[in-house]
Amino acid sequence: xxxxxxxxxxxxxxxxxxxxxxxxxxxxxxxxxxxxxxxxxxxxxxxxxxxxxxxxxxxxxxxxxxxxxxxxxxxxxxxxxxxxxxxxxxxxxxxxxxxxxxxxxxxxxxxxxxxxxxxxxxxxxxxxxxxxxxxxxxxxxxxxxxxxxxxxx
Length: 153
Known about the structure:
The chain is an alpha/beta fold. It has 3 helices and 8 strands; from the N terminus they run βββαβββαββα. It has helices at about 40-50, 100-115, 145-150; strands spanning about 1-15, 20-25, 25-30, 55, 60-65, 70-75, 120, 130-145. The strands form 2 sheets. Strands 1, 2, 3, 6, 7 and 8 form a 6-stranded mixed β-sheet that branches. It has a two-stranded antiparallel ribbon with strand order 4-5. Strand 6, helix 2 (about 100-115) and strand 7 (about 120) form a beta-alpha-beta unit. Helix 1 (about 40-50) crosses helix 2. The protein is globular and about 45 Å long. The chain starts with a strand and ends in a 5-residue tail after the last helix. The mean pLDDT is about 95.
């Protein structure tokens, strides 16, 4: 599982001209799922994401988490996080989770995030989404379950 987390002052997702999710201060998170992911892995990833202390405190030190600043989440499913570019110039996406499984895991991640963060917005799984954001910093973190999770796959 891979999360690309961007600290934003605002972000939105539009599908076919309709806004499906919009936040102010918080994280825009692109979520990639592989077929080997599990709910245990998702739990650890959500815990790590929501606990990241990457907001400035009153002394301008990066010391506060999402909950400390009343931040929101905009979660966007993005299978392209599993692009394999080793051969040729056309990426392969065979490492990305199959759509039904990936959607199930994405919905699980949304539900787990809502247990911790009061305002969780989303895109639409599998849709052609247009994402707008104002990156704050810029501050971008990549979480990869292969690097941070001790859960056996």
